[in-house]
Amino acid sequence: xxxxxxxxxxxxxxxxxxKTKGWPAFGTxxxxxxxxSSDADQTYDKYGTSDLxxxxxxxxxxxxxxxxxxx
Length: 71
Fold this sequence. Notes:
Radius of gyration: 11 Å
Oligomer: single chain
């Protein structure tokens, strides 16, 4: 996910940033960063999986990824 959308305190805050853009997925990284793009649902797994994430907010160079569905 190449577009940095700012610092957030929760996945919900990141969700709200992407909802206004209509983007289908987003990721939280390094416990406070929000990342996404218009094709994030197709590219989020470009580098494979990681077991580094914790607290639903990602970790250094690892995203917790969320797909927006059922809206």
